[in-house]
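wait is this the right file?? whatever heres the structure
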């Protein structure tokens, strides 16, 4: 490494060397900012115009906000309290306005003197704090504030532009303090290395990186902000797509054994037995998969399909094709319950074709084995033997399959169910089991918009199954506002009873189990009564089951299912429910993946606001699997205007998973989506919005692929290499944290 690179560039300087230890510490702990470069890439969330006021009606509840507004009036009240029994307690109430809406600020105790002096009617200021509801009115308690005087103290330079950047801030560090820190390091922006190739930047008319950083932090006009954002979006999209293109490029250099099914082998025998025809979608996707399997480098394909769209059938046919060609196929499930279920349904679908080497087995038959952590030693030893000798063509299991001791005769295909529970390293560990890297098919029932798939699973090609097989019933979904309308909840339990009386069954889903030890650290903190009401613990399976069995569902057979039960008990409960012996199953989200009980027609989700949109959609997919229509009731105590309620309304209004995943993304910050979707892709998306910027992502993907094909090592692009290292370091850190 030459000396120029070894010496620290201005952007690698640690913040504590530039800003002072206290500020640097808060920035590192609360905002994850460690170097000058990190801070320069901490972009404003939005801008306030110096003369204009924030629109107060749209403030989000429970979030830390910064607003620019004008003081309408200020009143000092005295009251008696435990601390000040003689009526000496003081409370300052300040009303601020944007001209139409109003917001109440409150200050207590000794904290009232300074604001009482500063916040005179007519004063304009920036206020920062957490929005809460008090007596049905929005308020900020003890906000920090910065007066906007425009007097001589403030240099003309600071306020040259009328646009005030508002930064993503925390209670420990207000937006305007972050702004001041950024002014300190802004001169270093001149030394920023440009990751975009010149030809790409000039071809698209994008400004240079130092200019973009200057304009995003200190814009003079709205056009400055636009220039800066479109340039910085390109950086993010392009660097990320280059990382993925390099992964794809490296994968495409790997050798693999082509696997072509024989015309009169196992797959043909299986297709002849099928009691129904495959949907057009299944046929199209199967063709894409078979084309990939026939090449001499490994397939890497993502198969997306709604719950019940027939993904398992497509995956099974791919596995049979590989067995036909003399290889073995492994299917990995996230949980034991699910592995057992896949095993059971695959053996059923194959019939005598799954009885290889047994009496009554068909001549093309193979063996289908199950391998999970809780199996008995003898069964486990037999399964491992069948895999090592090649007797078993198909194995279905949990992560136990990745263990060192498991040896395959000739592993040709790995199918991974529910990618978001399965990281990149595990894929690699399993890959190492083949003589050459096996083909890989990843299945997910979480619908992912196209561009998110390009970002999160950018190293995979994507296939989508978007039609449901015939005979599936519609599901009606409704929000049950338990707090506003308690009688709606009573009606919900009546509906569950009606379903059971008609010979059907129901699920009740709760966010927690209910046998957790109370954490003394957590309960030690005193909470205000508002906090208590707001943050009561989520409803728990054990309490709810008990309440239902004694009360509204008295006389019905109610059982519980959750993740901490012994696998045998779980299995027994599931079997009784599947056999129709249990009327109502009260469960945690363990039922979210893969439990198939066509007779279950109703689902009540308690505290539905505590689940994500796509999770609710997954859960709902468990009912309406038979010929009778399904019913899903989303119970919540959230007030009507809250974002949580809007989220639930959107789930109730559509059954289209792709539509919901867009809504979900628009309502959550993208980073969360990418972070949850897969370890190793906690991208540093700051200005790029996966949904709005579809074109940029698609174009960046093309550009990145071309750049990597021309120069896989990126020798001619030092700026891009630096940006890439920063991104991959961050990924590596995420890996270590996820451990």
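ok assuming it is, sequence goes like this
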């Amino acid at each position: 490494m030459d000396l120029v690179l070894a010496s620290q560039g201005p952007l690698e300087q640690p913040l504590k060397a530039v800003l002072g230890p206290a500020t640097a510490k808060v920035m590192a702990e609360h905002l994850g900012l460690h170097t000058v470069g990190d801070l320069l890439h901490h972009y404003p969330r939005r801008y306030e115009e110096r003369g204009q006021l924030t629109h107060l009606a749209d403030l989000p509840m429970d979030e830390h906000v910064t607003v620019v507004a004008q003081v309408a009036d200020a009143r000092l009240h005295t009251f008696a309290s435990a601390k000040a029994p003689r009526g000496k307690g003081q409370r300052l109430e300040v009303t601020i306005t944007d001209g139409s809406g109003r917001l109440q600020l409150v200050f207590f105790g000794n904290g009232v003197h300074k604001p009482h002096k500063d916040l005179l009617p007519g004063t304009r200021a920036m206020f920062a704090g957490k929005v809460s509801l008090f007596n049905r009115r929005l308020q900020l308690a003890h906000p920090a504030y910065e007066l906007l005087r425009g007097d001589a103290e403030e240099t003309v330079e600071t306020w040259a532009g009328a646009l005030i950047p508002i930064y993503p801030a925390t209670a420990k560090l207000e937006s305007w303090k972050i702004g001041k820190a950024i002014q300190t390091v802004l001169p270093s922006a001149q030394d920023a290395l440009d990751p975009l190739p010149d030809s790409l930047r000039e071809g698209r008319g994008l400004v240079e990186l130092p200019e973009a950083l200057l304009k995003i932090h200190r814009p003079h006009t709205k056009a400055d902000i636009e220039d800066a954002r479109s340039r910085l979006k390109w950086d993010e999209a392009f660097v990320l797509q280059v990382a993925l293109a390099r992964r794809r490029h490296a994968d495409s250099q790997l050798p693999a054994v082509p696997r072509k099914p024989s015309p009169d082998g196992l797959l043909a025998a299986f297709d002849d037995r099928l009691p129904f025809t495959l949907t057009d979608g299944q046929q199209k996707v199967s063709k894409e998969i078979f084309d990939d399997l026939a090449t001499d480098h490994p397939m890497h394909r993502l198969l997306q399909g709604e719950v019940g769209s027939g993904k398992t059938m497509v995956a099974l046919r791919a596995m049979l094709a590989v067995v036909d060609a003399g290889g073995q196929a492994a299917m990995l499930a996230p949980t034991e319950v699910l592995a057992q279920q896949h095993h059971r349904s695959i053996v059923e679908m194959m019939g005598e074709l799954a009885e290889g080497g047994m009496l009554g087995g068909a001549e093309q038959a193979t063996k289908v084995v199950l391998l999970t952590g809780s199996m008995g030693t003898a069964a486990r030893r037999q399964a491992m033997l069948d895999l090592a000798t090649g007797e078993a063509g198909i194995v279905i299991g949990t992560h136990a399959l990745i263990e060192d001791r498991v040896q395959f005769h000739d592993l040709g295909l790995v199918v991974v169910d529910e990618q978001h529970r399965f990281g990149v390293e595990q894929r690699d560990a399993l890959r190492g089991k083949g003589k050459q890297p096996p083909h890989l098919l990843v299945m997910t029932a979480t619908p992912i918009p196209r561009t998110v798939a390009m970002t999160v699973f950018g190293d995979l090609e994507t296939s989508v199954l978007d039609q449901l097989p015939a005979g599936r019933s519609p599901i009606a979904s409704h929000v049950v506002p338990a707090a506003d309308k308690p009688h709606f909840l009573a009606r919900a339990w009546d509906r569950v009873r009606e379903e059971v009386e008609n010979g059907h069954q129901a699920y009740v889903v709760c966010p927690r189990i209910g046998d957790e030890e109370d954490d003394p650290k957590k309960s030690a903190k005193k909470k205000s009564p508002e906090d208590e009401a707001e943050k009561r613990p989520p409803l728990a399976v054990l309490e709810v089951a008990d309440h239902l069995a004694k009360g509204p569902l008295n006389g019905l057979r109610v059982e519980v299912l959750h993740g901490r039960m012994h696998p045998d008990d779980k299995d027994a409960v599931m079997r009784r429910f599947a056999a129709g012996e249990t009327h109502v199953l009260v469960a945690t989200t363990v039922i979210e993946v893969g439990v198939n009980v066509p007779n279950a027609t109703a689902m009540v989700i308690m505290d539905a606001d505590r689940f994500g949109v796509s999770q609710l959609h997954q859960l709902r997919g468990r009912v309406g699997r038979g010929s009778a229509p399904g019913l899903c009731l989303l119970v919540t105590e959230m007030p009507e205007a809250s974002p949580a309620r809007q989220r639930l309304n959107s789930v109730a209004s559509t059954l289209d998973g792709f539509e919901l995943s867009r809504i979900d993304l628009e309502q959550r910050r993208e980073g969360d989506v990418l972070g949850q979707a897969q370890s190793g892709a906690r991208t540093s998306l700051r200005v790029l919005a996966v949904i709005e910027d579809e074109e940029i992502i698609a174009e960046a993907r093309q550009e990145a692929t071309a750049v990597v094909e021309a120069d896989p090592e990126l020798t001619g692009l030092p700026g891009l290499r630096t940006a890439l290292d920063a991104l991959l370091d961050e990924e590596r850190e995420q890996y270590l944290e996820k451990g």
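DSSP finds 27 helices and 21 strands in the chain. so i think its the right one actually
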